[in-house]
Design goal:
Layout (H helix, E strand, L loop, with lengths): L6 E4 L22 E4 L7 H10 L1 H10 L4 E2 H7 L5 H13 L3 E6 L5 E6 L1 H19 L1 H11 L4
Antiparallel strand pairs: 1-2, 3-5, 4-5
Length: about 150
């Protein structure tokens, strides 16, 4: 496996990390700079990766790459997800800054979910992974058959 080095990201008291940034000088201010390393147990990037890479996170982000969805339309698109799991998934993805919940002032209120710019970048990579997995399914199914697993 190729090695990778941690990524420094800018963070401030006004909001979430702004994106990759080189670490300044030998003694950076810990409030201004966070070094993201998903392999470090206490790094917040690990929980974000868990939110993204979970079964429902991947599918919700990939579906939202198509555009904005109302809750029930997204639930129909992500076949098999319960109302509770979709609500929880959207809530953590919104908290991570990947999904926007837009409540429109109508009666009854109309709520739509869409991706932030970060969410779109991540969802684009997830689509690449999904397409690769789908393309590899003949080989996967053949391997399962050889192993006696018919799922």
């Amino acid at each position: 496996m190729a090695s990778r080095s941690p990524t420094a990201i800018s963070a401030d008291a006004d909001g979430p990390a702004a994106g990759p940034k080189s670490v300044p000088g030998p003694d950076p201010d810990p409030v201004d700079t966070l070094v993201a390393d998903v392999f470090a147990r206490s790094c917040p990037s690990r929980s974000t990766l868990e939110h993204i890479a979970g079964k429902w996170g991947i599918l919700a982000l990939a579906a939202l790459l198509d555009g904005s969805y109302r809750f029930n339309a997204l639930r129909r698109r992500v076949d098999g997800i319960s109302e509770k799991m979709l609500a929880q998934t959207l809530q953590v993805l919104e908290r991570d800054g990947l999904v926007v919940r837009d409540v429109q002032a109508t009666i009854p209120p109309r709520v739509e979910y869409s991706l932030t710019p970060s969410g779109r970048r991540i969802a684009g990579k997830l689509i690449e992974l999904i397409e690769l997995v789908e393309a590899e399914m003949p080989e996967v199914l053949a391997a399962r058959a050889r192993a006696g697993d018919v799922r």
